[in-house]
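Onboarding guide, step 5: your first structure request.
Type a short instruction followed by the sequence, for example:

Predict the 3D structure of this protein.
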Amino acid sequence: MAPYLLVIAVATLASIIAINSKRSVFFSTALFVILIVFTGLRYQVGYDWIAYERYFNAVDEQISITSYFNKDYPLNVELLYYLLNNVVKTVFGSFDAMIFIISLLNISIIHYVFIRIDKNSLSFSWLIYIIIALIPIQFNIIRQSLASSFVCLSILYAVHKDYKFSALFFVISLGFHISSIIFLPLIIFYNYRLKIVHLGVIVSLSSLIFLIDIQIVGDLLSIISNYLPSIFSQKADAYSASLGASGGSSVSLLTYILVMMHFIFAMILYLDREKDLVNIAFNLTIMILISHLLFKEFPSIWNRVMAVSLVFQIPCLWIVIRNRLDKVALNAVCIFVGAIGLTINYYKLSRFEAIAFVPYHSYLQVVLFDDYGNGRQRTEYAIRYADEMKAGGF
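The system replies with structure tokens like these:
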């Protein structure tokens, strides 16, 4: 697990340097390159890759749109994701190239959005993102992570009133994953901030459902799916089935912690002066807070919202904090956050559930030392174990 912890340590150092040195751009750029290499050159790491490798292998080696409609594939994916696989397989012929291209796009887009929000928050934004989201998002939801990156671009350009590019990037996000549609109201009403009364009603009702453990979302999705176009109803049915499979299990301590954390984030952002980017960060915080309350046993929904929300939450929160603290306090915050991040990730990566991520294996090890590792066996075992636990009701 050392490579994961090393990346957190480097991000912590870059955050401290950003506070104290005018050469912080060099270190934040170095961190950006490290992240591209770390995520893009991973080899058979995580859960999600094995299903998408199977899909990649089934795609034709000649560029063809008609095959998408005429051929059966192991996964039901959107057209743009199919085309990306088709082009990469035609040009490079390697799923590892596919992983690298997706990682390059994701890390570059997030880095760009961080810079556009506040370049002085860049290193700290990456530190928090690495601690919270690098493994569950960049290593584990390949197609959704790509769609989420383009949602971030769409929101950013909407805020800057470049509506043509905002619409273009949103359509691209739908082309990678149709569930991006949940962010459409946020993009349309990007400059609207909920009134405190409306916010109180929404959060109170969601909290009530959360506390008394009413399982209404799966049933609601089942009903709605009957009236949706097939492209949406398939997703709704899949989410409903997943919710039903997890019903009855207790809410974890982590869920309560995440709910409280996002509630605090929402209050901090609400008290800041009204600006478009702060409004977006606030609205996304409410969105992910509600997703934790209503989808408490369905972390896949959290990840989809979090993949977008963190990119705006972190820099906006850091701006608020940075404007209220002196350098000594800011350094202490970075050191504290880095230490907490190292501790949490050490604990998470030490658990059996992290078998698909630990040890980290790089494609460079394959090329330089002919060392293929045992990532495939570990991932297949982890998936079988997870399926058995789910079937057993655990």
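Each response can be followed by summary notes, for example: The chain is about 75% helix and 0% strand.
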